[in-house]
Amino acid sequence: MPTHIELEFSKEPFEDCRESVIVSLTDMHGRQQERLRLGIVTAEEVYQRIDEKQSVVLDMRYVKDFSLKHYRKTRSLSPDCVIDLLDFSACWAYFDGVEPCDFSFANFTGSSTSFANSLFGDGPLSFFTAKFCASITDFSLSHFGAGAANFQYASFQSKTVSFDHALFETGDIQFVNCDFGDANISFREVNFGLGKVDFHYTCFGKGLITFDKSTFGGSEVSFKRVDFGEGKVDFKRTNFGNGEIDFSEADFKSGKVVFRSAVFGDGNINFQEATSTSDFIFDNATFGNGSLSFFNASARMLSFKLCQFNNYVDLRVNEVEVLDLSDTIVRDIIDLMPTSKAPVRMKQMVFSGMRNLGNLYIDWERNDVLNLILSQEETTQRQKSDQFLVLKESYNSTGRYSDEDRAYIWYKRFELKADVEYSIKNNPVSALWAYPTAFSKWLLFDKIGLYATEPLRVLFSVSVIYTLFSVLYLVLPLVADTYIDTGGGEVLENMNPVGKAFYYSAITFLTIGYGEFYPVGIMRFFASLEGYVGVFLMGYFSVAFVRKVLR
Predict the structure, then answer these.
(1) How many helices (H) and strands (E) does the chain have?
(2) Do 63 and 46 meet the contact criterion of CB atoms below 8 Å apart?
(3) Among residues 263, 302, 379, 421, which is most buried (max CB within 10 A)?
(4) Cα 56 from chain centre
(5) DSSP structural state of residue 217
(6) 156: CB partners within 8 A, 6+ apart
(7) What is the average per-residue pLDDT within 39-67?
(8) How far apart are CA 275 and CA 282, in angstroms?
(9) CA nearest 331: which of 357, 305, 361?
(10) What span, in angstroms and rounded, lies between the C-alpha atoms of 309 and 331?
(11) 203-244 confidence digits (pLDDT tens)
């Protein structure tokens, strides 16, 4: 939020300063935020302290036109001469002036370096190639004006670096090629303003990196090719605005990367070729209308629990052990189709509870979908069933009917298991009928015809069952007082027993009913049963055949 600064210069002394200034900060609505009295120090006074190699303490001071570039010029030093600043402290200081505020090639040494609560004017600010060697570097609650802030090639060798609650106005912010060493880096609740924020090629070490609750104003944000080191990277509750977000080719090594509850606006989000041996956690993050890409990225886990995707999501990763899309809402396309550059190697994929209002592009065979779901250790039978149903509907809407049939078969299989589990859990006695019922469904619907998805499978089942009944008619007269009688004359009476059994079975199975043969004894029961089975199976075949033809 832009801040208006008013200055009231006074001859009134302040501490060891002969003159002072009252600095009033008001927000865009005219509400006063701060009102401070600062002692006035000239840039030349600061330069003299540097010459004398004294500690540079500018707490509660107003400094105008401070510039190490100008300092070098007045001392006839080379433009890139390193200037040592010992125990530099500028808490509640205000750096103002017409000329750019310049700390380039500064070497901050001592126990600490502090710009806490400091104010910088609207001109450009440069810490180009500065070295922060003190144990603590503190920019917390500092206020950067409308000019660009340049930290390019800066080196932070401190144990702790803090920009907590810092405010940048409208200028671009450059952290390009910075080296943060192994410090713990905190950008917690920083307002990065409306300008471009660029961290590309920056290197972090083993320390914790946090941008928790930070806000980016809507321009481009780049972390391209950043080496995030081995520490945890925390972007929880960060608001990225509506600009383009670029994490492409970033290397997160073994550090866990957390974007939980982060808010992404309408800009495109790019994690292409980003790599990590740990996890990317985006649970409950909010995505706007921009696309999201993890093309050719690698990680141990990608988790998007409870997220909503409003635009194209490219998950054609190079390699991810676990992809978690559970309880997500999909309004466009999620693309998992392998390519030569992104083979999409995964061991497990979870999308239970997904509301798919768009399309899920995933290949049953090349993505090894069956094993992705069967390998889930924490999901229930019902959740697995629901995931196969999501796939079945997605395959149907995109015309991939063979894959739809495969998904449908496994959906029905796990649905059957889930129904049995549910029934027995609510009433243990129901096991007496739940298991026989489930077995009947398994035999009739699954084994005989794969839930009407394979007409040839049904025909094969018809042939097997017809043959079994035929053999039964041949064997029964040998063990019981039953036989096939005929009223068709001597030719039919003297018919070969095998031919008679198979012929009688055929006209019974197909319910032709010529009347040439009829059963006597217990064979009547089996004949009635075969007629019923024949009607059922022929109807089953018709359904499966028509289903295939219509597609």
Answers:
(1) 10, 41
(2) yes
(3) 302
(4) 47
(5) -
(6) 132, 137, 178, 179, 180, 181, 183, 185
(7) 94
(8) 16
(9) 357
(10) 6
(11) 999 999 999 999 998 889 999 999 999 989 999 999 999 999
Q: Which two tokens stand for residue 28?
A: 């865009």
**Beta-bridge partner residues of 319:** 298, 345
Residue 69, exposed/middle/buried by CB under 10 A (0-12, 13-18, 19+)? middle
SS3 40: strand
Q: Which of 157, 170, 166, 161 is nearest to 137 (CA)?
A: 161
Q: Count of CB atoms within 10 A of residue 90's CB? A: 26
Q: Which domains does the chain have, with CATH numbers?
A: 455-550 (1.10.287.70)
Beta pairing, strands 160-162 & 167-168: unpaired
Q: Is the pLDDT of residue 382 over 60?
A: yes
CA terminus-to-terminus distance, the chain: 59
Check if the beta carbon of residue 315 is closer than 8 Å to that of residue 302.
Answer: yes
Could you tell me how far CA 470 lies from the centroid of its own chain? Answer: 59
Q: Which one-letter amino acid corresponds to residue 182?
A: D
Side-chain-side CA neighbours of residue 331 (13 Å): 11
Amino acid, single-letter form, for residue 495: M
CA distance 23 to 372: 62
Query: What Rg do the C-alpha atoms of the chain give, in angstroms?
Result: 38
**Pairing of the two strands 167-168 and 149-150:** unpaired
Residue 252 identity (one-letter amino acid): F
